[in-house]
Write a structure and sequence with these properties.
The protein is an all-alpha fold. The chain has two helices and no strands. The protein starts with 15 loop residues before the first helix and ends with a helix.
Length: 65
Amino acid sequence: MNKKVIVKYELVADLPELKKLIAEFGKIGSNLNQIARHFNSGGIHLQEIRTSINESIADIYEMKY
């Protein structure tokens, strides 16, 4: 009777839109990994491609925050 009671609340969001968005972010991450592997393996380093990649990364961070 004299013990402390601990209450825990768990919120679960089962929204199809949220699941779809998370899946899309996973695909984007996979694509970025493939691009990084290409560059790291000695692939062509065109400034235009680098600029496009940097712009895409900036867009992703903007969406995230």
